[in-house]
Design goal:
The chain is an alpha/beta fold. The chain has one domain: Inosine-uridine Nucleoside N-ribohydrolase, Chain A (Alpha-Beta Complex), CATH 3.90.245.10. Helices cover 41% and strands 18% of the residues.
Length: 289
């Protein structure tokens, strides 16, 4: 089993908001080798309070109310929180075993390190979604980076102090594109619980991508960071060197004027095989409606 804490800014189900954190939760619940210890909430897609209440309500509706959901930092100015405490305590209890998946701001991870200076050395692997290695263009239009830029100091701390860090960069996540018609077809062909709940959650997001980015589908950013943790064989080796600074990360840029850091920047090996894996896993999610 892979013990994972998922740190996210989940807004799936809210009108016109990102859905990929919620899809990543379904992915984790669909993998029998994953032990999901908790969900810690961070800001990014929305406020801490919105993310926290939305995630609690979502897990209750899925019959997963026993999974702990922890409030995180409200902003970069005060990172002390129940989420930071939980992360620090879990890393201490499971030193060398714990895996972190973080797909929003990194504030809670730095908060945990501020509580326990040995936090990063205790965590086995950290998989992040965020950062850019050049201009990010989606559907022919520029898109700003969010996850690292909303708390660049915390992002730099994780990248420079974490062990075995992988980053699903925005550019590499563009291959995690899910066409709307294909997604609808897969859901229509399944009688799984997830297939019944997802159409209502996804249709508004399909419309956002069509309106704002001119795409008949959406980039499923966060699930790529989860899939790399559980099934790295789906990805090409991504050993890389990045040079972020707090200044460059304020724009989400991994290539700045900071010291060289060794990380993994995985790339999807076969896009169709990857999408099949994600569909199959999401539709296997252990939820009750």
């Amino acid at each position: 089993m892979i013990p994972i804490i998922y740190d996210c800014d989940n807004t799936m189900g809210l009108p016109g908001r990102e859905v990929d954190d919620g899809l990543t939760l379904l992915y984790l619940l669909g993998r029998p080798e994953v032990e999901l210890l908790a969900v810690t909430c961070t800001f990014g897609n929305d406020s801490q309070e919105t993310v926290y209440q939305n995630t609690r309500a979502m897990l209750r509706s899925w019959g997963q109310a026993d999974i702990p959901v922890l409030r995180g930092a409200e902003s970069p100015t005060d990172r002390a929180s129940p989420a930071a405490d939980f992360l620090a305590d879990a890393a201490r209890r499971r030193t060398g075993e714990l895996t972190l998946l973080a797909t929003g701001s990194a504030a809670n991870l730095l908060g945990a390190a501020q509580k326990d200076p040995d936090f990063f050395s205790r965590v086995r692997t950290i998989s992040l979604m965020g950062g850019v290695t050049g201009p990010l263009v989606v559907g022919g239009r520029p898109m700003a980076e969010l996850n690292f830029s909303c708390d660049p100091q915390a992002a730099l701390a994780v990248l420079s102090r974490g062990r075995n860090v992988a980053v699903a960069t925005a550019q590499n996540c563009l291959d995690s594109y899910f066409p709307a018609e294909e997604f609808r077809r897969r859901l229509a062909q399944s009688d799984a619980p997830a297939a019944r709940l997802l159409p209502a959650a996804l249709e508004g997001w399909f419309q956002v991508y069509q309106r704002d980015w001119g795409l008949p589908g959406f980039v499923n950013w966060d699930v790529m960071a989860a899939a790399w943790l559980v099934h790295p064989e789906l990805f090409l080796p991504g050993d890389s060197v990045i040079t972020p600074s707090e200044s460059s990360l304020s724009r989400g840029e991994l290539l700045g004027d900071g010291p060289a850091l060794a990380v993994s920047l995985p790339r999807i090996r076969d896009r169709e095989a990857y999408r099949r894996h994600v569909y199959d896993t999401i539709l296997s999610a252990r939820i009750g409606l």
